[in-house]
Design a protein that fits this description.
6 strands; single chain
């Protein structure tokens, strides 16, 4: 049996999902809850095979739960079930350690397929996202510590001159860092850098 935890703060949606999965062969729902902190406690105490997590939940969001799971080195694998159909949120979830990313608009059957795929050691991604041609970023580019620091300051509205003064660098050096950041991340403006930082958990 595949032991599954369901965490979603939308009660009716969660109950429908639980009912569907309970009717499936080889699936056991070991617990359900409506917030991330409770989900993490249940993962610790029950060690399910799969945790199906909403991203947007009270107390602790789904991605933070996955990060905590990785830090605890629990054997449970996470599948994100979400309304967020963009590549940056996908990248953030996968980098945190999630093994699946399924949209709530997808059929329940796709989540069931994802559960089996993740148990087999595969990564499951929403067919809707793949068919729509949304770019799926498999990992965050390997930024240096200085690039991460500069990205954070850019996201907080600092100019090149302010960043240069903060790190005692030349404005030209800071501009080179900014150019390299955009190149690594495939972005083309300061606004895109700020949006990237926000989606990756900055600010």
């Amino acid at each position: 049996m595949i032991r599954v935890l369901i965490a979603d703060d939308h009660v009716m949606f969660r109950q429908g999902l639980v009912t569907f999965l309970r009717a499936a062969e080889h699936i056991e729902i070991v617990a359900e809850c409506g917030d991330g902190a409770t989900a993490l406690d249940l993962v610790r105490s029950l060690a399910p095979d799969i945790a199906v997590l909403d991203i947007t939940m009270p107390v602790l969001d789904g991605i933070s739960v996955v990060q905590a799971m990785a830090a605890l080195r629990v054997p449970t694998q996470a599948i994100m079930l979400t309304m967020h159909d963009d590549s940056l949120m996908y990248s953030r979830a996968i980098n945190a350690g999630a093994r699946g990313f399924i949209l709530k608009d997808d059929a329940y059957e796709e989540l069931l397929d994802a559960v089996h795929a993740v148990v087999r050691g595969e990564t499951a991604v929403s067919s809707t996202m793949r068919q729509a041609g949304i770019e799926l970023e498999p990992a965050t580019p390997n930024l240096t510590d200085r690039q991460k620091q500069i990205l954070d300051l850019i996201a907080h509205g600092c100019t090149n001159r302010m960043i240069a003064e903060h790190f005692d660098l030349s404005i030209k050096t800071v501009n080179n860092h900014r150019t390299n950041l955009m190149s690594k991340l495939g972005l083309h403006s300061t606004a895109e850098l700020v949006r990237y930082s926000l989606r990756m958990g900055g600010l």
